[in-house]
């Protein structure tokens, strides 16, 4: 199992680095079998009968999806559909709705402090070749500067004002963690976000997250297992020179393990999250 998970991560790293330019911004199209932990959080606006992919999140068990707390600003929980097991965000795979949500109690909307939330799904997702949960890093596990991770999402290919559109097919990009000093200095004058030691920045020339990628997972090896090291929280300019900001999942591993409990009538193999070891 560990070997299998790692080999899919390594296979994606090679596929992503070899394939030609396309998008998230600057990413490449991937199949759900390459990143089977991906779930789309699709939002329904009934008055105009529009369904858009609002955020993304990785499965951390059959019952739980991790994403940003920011994703739910101004949103009604009943109007979300969670789709797993599909390369497309708006069709295919299996869907569920939200049972309830736990935002991190330290979340501050204005500065995106503690931008992380646990989504509990009503209908659990059964593990298959297209549906799998990601392991969490141990509490406090810090990835080294310069380490690359796979970031996946269905967000826009470029800024909306530049005529960007939503990706229909899943995209992945490899981003490299930069030093905390660069991260802090980059955003020193931006009052919309505060860089603390509970976030890190990652980038690559002309690549990055974009509109609709909030919650996009960054996956890298932890010990010898592909694990969820970060979720996309903030960006300034799609694929710009500003590195993208990720919530450090390892800062919240204990909080996630304490809160992501399974229903008592559980019956599935991976009903609660697991820590990489
Ligand atoms: C959510 O969905 C329900 C049922 O379709 C609808 O009545 C309601 O207006 C929606 N809420 C929002 C904020 O769109
Ligand atoms: C932030 O603002 C200060 C003072 O105006 C300026 O000297 C500095 O270059 C700015 N930093 C960035 C990254 O824009
Ligand atoms: C901060 O947010 C405001 C309101 O959304 C926006 O107008 C402004 O451009 C943002 N500042 C930066 C530096 O992104």
Automatic annotation (TrEMBL):
Q: Supply the alphabetized keyword list.
A: Disulfide bond, Hydrolase, Protease, Serine protease, Signal
InterPro entries registered for this protein in UniProt: Peptidase_S1, Peptidase_S1_PA, Peptidase_S1_PA_chymotrypsin, Peptidase_S1A, Trypsin_dom
Q: Which PROSITE patterns match?
A: TRYPSIN_DOM
Identify the CDD domains for this entry: Tryp_SPc
Keyword Signal set for record: yes
**Superkingdom of the source?**
Eukaryota
Q: Name one Pfam family in it.
A: Trypsin
Q: Which GO terms describe its biological process?
A: proteolysis
Task: Tell me the Gene3D superfamilies matching this sequence.
Answer: Trypsin-like serine proteases (2.40.10.10)
Q: Which GO terms describe its molecular function?
A: serine-type endopeptidase activity
This chain belongs to the protein called Peptidase S1 domain-containing protein
Native organism: Leptosia nina
């Amino acid at each position: 199992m560990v070997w299998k998970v790692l080999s899919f991560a390594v296979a994606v790293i090679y596929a992503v680095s070899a394939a030609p330019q396309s998008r998230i911004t600057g990413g490449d199209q991937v199949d759900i079998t390459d990143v089977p932990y991906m779930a789309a959080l699709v939002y329904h606006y009934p008055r105009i009968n529009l369904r858009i992919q609002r955020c993304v999140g990785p499965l951390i068990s059959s019952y739980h999806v991790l994403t940003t707390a920011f994703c739910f600003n101004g949103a009604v929980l009943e109007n979300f559909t969670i789709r797993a097991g599909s390369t497309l965000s708006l069709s295919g795979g299996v869907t569920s709705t939200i049972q309830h949500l736990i935002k991190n109690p330290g979340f501050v909307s204005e500065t995106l402090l503690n931008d992380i939330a646990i989504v509990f799904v009503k209908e659990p997702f059964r593990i298959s070749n297209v549906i799998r949960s990601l392991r969490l890093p141990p509490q406090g596990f810090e990835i080294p500067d310069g380490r690359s991770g796979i970031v996946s999402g269905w967000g826009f290919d470029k800024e909306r004002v530049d005529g960007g559109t939503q990706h229909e097919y899943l995209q992945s990009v490899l981003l490299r963690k930069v030093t905390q000093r660069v991260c802090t200095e980059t955003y020193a004058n931006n009052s919309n976000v505060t860089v603390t030691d509970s976030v890190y920045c990652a980038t690559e020339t002309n690549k990055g997250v974009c509109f609709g990628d909030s919650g996009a997972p960054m996956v890298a090896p932890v010990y010898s297992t592909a694990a969820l090291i970060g979720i996309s929280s903030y960006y300034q300019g799609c694929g710009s020179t500003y590195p993208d900001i990720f919530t450090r999942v390892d800062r919240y591993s204990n909080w996630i393990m304490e809160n992501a409990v399974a229903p008592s009538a559980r019956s599935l193999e991976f009903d609660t999250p697991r820590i990489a070891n």
